[in-house]
Amino acid sequence: MKGLAKENMVARIRTALGRGPLEVTPGCPSALPEQTADAGNENVVEMFCTELRRVGGHAVHVRVEGDVKEYLRNLLPAGVEMVVASSISARVGAWLTGQNASVISLAHGGSVGAAAEDTLTSSLLRADIGITSADYGIAETGTLVLITGRERHRLVSLLPPVHVCLLDVRHILGSMGQLLTLVYRDSYSGGAPPQSLTMLTGPSCTADIEQTLTQGMHGPRELHVLLHMSLV
Amino acid sequence: MQVSLFVTCLVNQISPQVGVATVEFLKRIGVGVTFNAEQTCCGQPAYNAGYHREACEVARGTLRLFERELDSSDYVVVPSGSCVAMIRKCYPKLFSADAAECARAERVAGRVLELTEFLVRVLRVEPSGGSFGGRVTYHDSCHLLRELGVANEPRTLLSSMQGAEFVEMDRADVCCGFGGTFSVKFPELSTALAEEKLASIERTRADAVVACDTGCLMHLAGELNRRGSPVRCLHIAEVLNAQPETDESRD
Amino acid sequence: MSKATEKFIAIQTGVSAGGEEWQRLRKRAVMIKSHTLDNLDHYLEQFASNVEHSGGRVCWAHDAEEANRYICDLARTRGVRLAVKSKSMMSEEIDLNHALAMAGVEAVETDFGEFIAQLAGERPSHINMPIVHKSRADVADLFAAKLNVGRLEEIKDLASVARRLLRARFAAAEMGITGVNFAIAETGTIVLVENEGNIRFTTALPPVQVAVMGIEKVIPRLADLEVFLKLLPRSASGQKITAGVSLLTGIKRAPHEEGPREFHVIILDNGRTGILADPQLRESLHCIRCGACLNVCPVYRKIGGHAYGWVYPGPIGAVLTPILIGREKSADLPFASSLCGACRDVCPVKINLPEMLLHLRTQIKERPAAKVDPPARTGSHSPRTFGQLLANRAERAAFKLWAAVMKDARRYRRAARLARLAQLTLGGGKRRGVFSILLSRWTTSHIPPLAPQPFSSWWRELSDPDERRPER
User: Fold this and answer.
1) What ipTM does the predicted assembly reach?
2) C428: which of A79, B114, B195, C339 is 20 to 30 A away, CA to CA?
């Protein structure tokens, strides 16, 4: 039945186009020529920060782990117990010692069974801060790129109202075009594409009521990007 | 320089003073003007209403008229953007069934010009001598602006007039709501759009609103009269032709 | 609507500042879309094959009924009682929520604007800003009445209520349903853009994922996405890029670990092959649903989206509606435009909307008796009444008469003389135009009176002042 439905639709399309099946694979017009910005160079990093701040995200340079610890300390309100979820590294616990914070860590590999997933979701729904890393950055728009596979950052970057994201500056590309070329080569062309690639630019928002912008809708209302070089 | 005037059915029957002003002004700046009294209409009303056959019948005659006129004139000049858009952009489509006729339409198209196109792009005229007292603002007619790409030409002419203070209105390029048969089929909507345009005009505190299309001017004038507003609706030809001593420039 | 108009204008001002770069993007987008449509069979097959390769399933649906049946069967066999949905015009087109309700599935809209519209029992009135017709006060009243919360004045408080309510639904839903902004043939990937985060929730939590798309959503390669990601957000909301863009491919596969258990894509025709077949209308399939044409349309700004009577409002709606639900039932729409052309100017994919409206007008006038079998629901449109049919006959006769007069100069002059006579006689001292009087039964529009003398008389007197020719 399904085969027939497909054949019928394809046949209708061909009739509409006034021809039979194609004999030769069509050649697509070439993609836009790439811009020349180099990954990781000063200008690119600068542009990334400017763009991110323009849309209400925070961009901060961190050199050593002490900087991260300091930043997190300032983020946590005094006297309140906070739940911090993390997908990056067991070191997060160390970053939070002395703080009134409990950590949910998704750093360990291996798949999680269905029941465990539900519990995980419930815990993440209660988390106040989510810490992840990003796979790439795009300078021209201040965008983070998170690809499922290496790190379990999909829900940690979404559920908690505050998202802290560590981005290695050497992974910041100039343009969307460069990003797409790279991920096609590294992730999509091998026949085993990632289930999800998410591009995040600033905190979530809505302007549905009277076209007035409000930051923080379903996704995080705050986005903090910590720019580093090979720190994690 | 010799031109043949295609005065348009609206100007001919409803606003003849626009035709008069066009002829007087052109003559004053040394352009020879002829008028072929066999002309009727470009066919746009039927075309826009969906009656292509009827539009074709009428347009055919007009095309032949232009061909005859262009034998002895350099250009056909038209005080209307929408008619020129019809002739230049739509005639080739209207006659697309007949390759020869279509080619004729395309040949004619390049030599049929809207008045300000002709004055600024061909003659490179700078209005002098004429003067218009008071504050004027300008409304971009849709076809003139978007089909013919004419936006700077009328403004250039208006800004360089002695005595006239030219003020740009907000949303000058938003449709006034005339749209030909649209105003007949959807009169409340058409009026509502005119009201918005009038609000833009009011904000400029201009004494007159100027446009290059009689359709728009008629539509806006109708609304202004209904309100008892003193703001005048003038075709650019009338403004250009205004003389210091005559009534048109005062008031 | 007038407040919304301010916002619309602001978006467009930003876009027009895009200059050469913007024109370059538009040109590229048209090339890609046009090439894709010319080879649509190839790219859809490639897309479907790649979806299946990643563990997904494809339903090739001819119409709303087939699509809804597939989704409802899926829900039934998976024991789905609650589905969360992100904004999808296609799902409106096929009335999916209604079908799901009949099948005992509660479908909850999660886009803030759609959530509000659903609560109010209304359709969205804009492609991207579903409740542009509602004020903050309207929403506050609605929430107070339906959600058992006090009257909240601040937008952020209203947003919090929705956020809290919907979090619970996201977590409990067994099925997530989305539309598709772009479908990438070479990888079997669907692309979704958003600002709120509800799409990420809808696609990350429920185990069964369903995406509905029209056949025209496919683009050839991942690289082609760049052009559209640069055009869509800017045209739609004046943003360089939306806060979230999701590229989703197939099901959860170890070692990826995060993703749905099932992934279904419904590829829908629903009348689009008919559009594809008409060379004058085919371009309308380039539409990326940005809503820019709505934003600049003086008519849309005045009357709002609901007045268009069906799913798609504005200029694109005026083109799609007659084609998809039948000309018989929506004959007014192509005429409800002044053909100002502002929509064509702003369209990121250069659709010549005014030309299409003209084409539809000609189709309606030249083949009024043509029967078109509408594949979709007809919304609030109804077949024409007898009175309308009579008016159409009268109009046709009027234009035939007009042509007969206008193509003969002598007849024209005679008719003009007669009309002036009639004006003097009928109008009396009231200065009413003859056409105003004649058409007063059909229109309240004011048509100015004929001038006492036509221009041609002035010219004649100018050329031959001595010749006395009575002109009446």
Assistant:
1) 0.94
2) B195
